[in-house]
Amino acid sequence: MFRLFPLPAALVAFAVTASAAADPPIGIVTSSGEFLIDQARVAGNATLRDGALIETTAAPSALRLRRGAEIDLGERARAQVFADRLVLEAGSSDIRAKAGYAVEAASLRITPASSETSARVVRQGEKIVQVGVSRGSMQVWDARGILIAHVVPGTPLEFEPQVAGAAPPSSFAGCLLQKQGRWVLYDQTTRILVQLRGTGFEREWGNRIQVIGTTDVGAQSEVAAQVVDVTSLTRLAQGGCEAVAQIIGAELPAKPVPPGPPVQTGGGMSAGTKVAILAAIAGGAGAGAYFATKKEDRSP
Length: 300
Hints:
Strand order of the largest sheet: 1-3-6-7-5-4
Structural class: mainly beta
CATH class of the largest domain: Mainly Beta
Shape: elongated
């Protein structure tokens, strides 16, 4: 026959202290209403621990992390919170963070590219991710670690990662320039520089063009975010690339052609992810609505 003896209070206290030390708090969450933390309903506020699942209800929730990141989850949002990242599963999130904190949504990883960044990231359904910035800038990376876009104030973007398998052709539009002896294109939607491989670039040097091709996911470039093997090239407009060349430190031909009428494109395909410019429409929780109420700090 076994007899049960109560544990000494000191031993119980030691066990609780050791457990708390092994899982220290990373911040706090507050709300004017109720929210769920790890599926437990809470009103007012609660301590955040690494990996906590937060689900908002009819009221938004404010997350304040010890490392300085500030996150406001909108109504009906769901996210897993870590010390170094937020995994957004549904709804909207307003982020104020420094470089080093990331947001993961669908298969994308979104990171601040400046010391102080204010942005909105929205998860719509299973595939659509919207990113808008009011201060600083954000970089968007795909599941393979390829930089697919650079989001700046005034130009919110919508992303739709494609299903795994053979990647569809990439499509970019912008100025064709040379940098360090390589042909490059500065895409006007994603604001990234891509290196081009192929033929027929000489006669379009300094013009605005659209290219279609395949991103070489295994290639690394010293001057660009992606390397694209071009299969199709179309001129969009003549000249008009002097300002872009100066900003990115690229070269134009000795005698640049005079600019033709400006041409705008609504988006493209960046390394297998559809990217489109998102209209800034007042109302709603999308990244476009972010600019209806936020002061914009436009970058070149």
